[in-house]
Write a structure and sequence with these properties.
With about 450 residues, this protein is of the alpha/beta class. The chain folds into two domains: about 90 residues, Archaeosine Trna-guanine Transglycosylase, Chain: A, domain 4, CATH 2.30.130.10; about 240 residues, Vaccinia Virus protein VP39 (Rossmann fold, 3-Layer(aba) Sandwich). The protein has 14 helices and 18 strands. Strands 11, 12, 13, 14, 15, 16, 17 and 18 form an eight-stranded mixed sheet that branches. A six-stranded mixed sheet has the order 5-9-8-7-4-6, covered by helices on one side. Strands 2-3-1-10 form a four-stranded antiparallel sheet, with helices on one face. α2 crosses α3 and α7 crosses α8. The protein is globular. GO terms for molecular function: RNA binding; RNA methyltransferase activity.
């Protein structure tokens, strides 16, 4: 199953993560050897994509079965337009416990022969190719000297970002992600006057084959990692409530919350970056959701300390919201596929103070009897279980709550939490079953195990 090297990290970051996964509580419970084995599996699986694509369906607009049929038709049309000799089996399946999720199999790793002409792309672009995307021109950093549109090429991902833009060859740390056909001449891709846009290489024989969702049923389906969909259900929004999404961009969870409420109530979305707010509004419009109000604002300052705030937008008076989602900025080390992270230990460990500032604001903005959900897409103990332990000590009004659905593993030992507390946390840990996942098994059997790394905690304010 392993066709890529383990995720490439700075040595100091590897040791930081190892110390968490081999901490005293973990080692005492299962033994040092088992803990080390789990850690090595984690490094291996992070560099590989999950064996399926997760799609959240707009069930507020149409029944899941109808959306599944329409999606099957669209993807079959896509296949007919493809020049690939090998036809992809669509095989869409509903998730057994999430009534708005469709699962599509990913075929890979496939036996693909490398070509002599090599295109080099950035690591982020390479990861997108492994999830079914074509190569867009801005992601290309190197190509053959005389490459023309129509040339067959092999695509390689530059793991460490060391390929000089415009290079005609690169011998650094790179991995093969598949073959495609150039859609532009080299001169157009690296033109100095106007940056190239659009597809630079159309993938026809990728190492991992999954459908491209570019322009497929906009408004009806939304690409989203499975744990990110689970977050919305755990929050449990109800029609008529007022809900805050504190760090909302790009808006996938915001829109899901509004859909789960039947678009009845108010979902306030905040983010610090203006163009990300525009993206949230575009997504809301595309999904026909009217209950979302998005504001460009720093959520750490979202509580009004002065006289009653009269304006519609932030800052808000304390206890303004029935439910709050704090999907916090984090180190993002749970994302898959991720073949390399060039961050220093200082960068990886810089998020905890910000997360705590956001937590303070979230608790103040939440009504008594309200629900706060905290989530991250990272694997560190410091940003997950340690934050829960800190929050329970810092805010006596918070109590941990069971989650529904609970399809991930329980929380990880090492933060001093009790077994009962760990059981109600939800940590998506793909490494726990990395050597057992059979891609021939039914999607429903492997979907809950083969995910990105993710963490969810649910609190009640008493």
């Amino acid at each position: 199953m392993s066709v890529f090297p383990r995720i490439s990290l700075k040595p100091e970051v590897t040791e930081y993560l190892r110390s968490a996964f081999l901490n005293k509580e973990v080692s005492a419970a299962g033994g040092l050897q088992e803990a080390e084995c789990r850690f090595q599996k984690l490094l291996a699986c992070l560099s590989h994509p999950p064996s399926y694509t997760c799609v959240r369906a707009s069930t507020h607009l149409a029944p899941l079965e109808d959306i599944g049929l329409r999606l099957t038709e669209e993807l079959r049309k896509q296949q007919k337009c493809s020049s690939s000799a090998e036809e992809l089996s669509v095989g869409i399946a509903p998730h057994p416990r999430l009534a708005d999720v469709l699962l599509l199999p990913v075929d890979g790793p496939r036996p693909v022969e490398r070509l002599s002409s090599e295109v080099v792309v950035g690591a982020q672009c390479g990861s997108a190719v492994l999830r079914g995307a074509h190569v867009f021109a801005p992601g290309i950093v190197g190509s053959p000297k005389y490459m023309k549109a129509g040339d067959p090429v092999s695509v390689f991902s530059d793991l460490e970002g060391r390929c000089t833009r415009g290079a005609t060859g690169f011998q650094g740390n790179k991995v093969f992600v598949g073959n495609g056909v150039a859609q532009m001449d080299r001169s157009a891709i690296f033109a100095t006057d106007t940056p190239a846009r659009g597809v630079g290489v159309r993938m026809v024989d990728p190492l991992y084959q999954s459908p491209s969702f570019d322009g497929v049923l906009p408004g009806m389906v939304f690409l989203q990692n499975l744990p990110s969909v689970v977050v919305g259900h755990v929050l449990g929004p109800r029609p008529g409530e007022r809900i805050l999404d504190m760090c909302a961009a790009p808006g996938g969870k915001t829109c899901h919350i509004a859909a789960l409420m039947g678009d009845k109530g108010e979902v306030v979305a905040l983010d610090r970056i203006r163009n990300k707010i525009d993206h949230i509004r575009q997504n809301a419009q595309m999904l026909s959701l009217q209950s979302i109000k998005a504001y460009c604002f720093n959520s750490t300052q979202a509580v009004s300390d002065g006289p009653t705030h009269q304006a519609e937008g932030p800052p808000f008076p304390p206890e303004s919201f029935d439910r709050v989602l704090l999907d916090a900025p984090c180190s993002g080390l749970g994302q898959r596929p991720n073949m390399a992270c060039t961050w220093s230990l200082k960068e990886v460990s810089s998020y905890q103070p910000l997360q705590r500032k956001l937590f303070h604001a979230a608790v103040r903005l939440l009504k008594k009897g309200g629900v706060l959900v905290y989530s991250t897409c990272t694997i560190t103990l410091a940003e997950n279980e340690e934050q829960v332990a800190w929050a329970l000590g810092a805010f006596p009004c918070l109590t941990l709550q069971p989650q529904e659905p609970h399809i991930g593993a329980e929380g990880m030992l090492g933060a001093g939490l009790s077994p009962e507390q760990l059981r109600v946390l939800q940590r998506f840990s793909p490494e726990l079953s990395w050597d057992q996942i059979e891609t021939t098994a039914p999607l429903a059997c492997r979907a809950d195990r083969d995910t990105i790394g993710f963490f969810i905690a649910k609190f009640l304010k008493t």
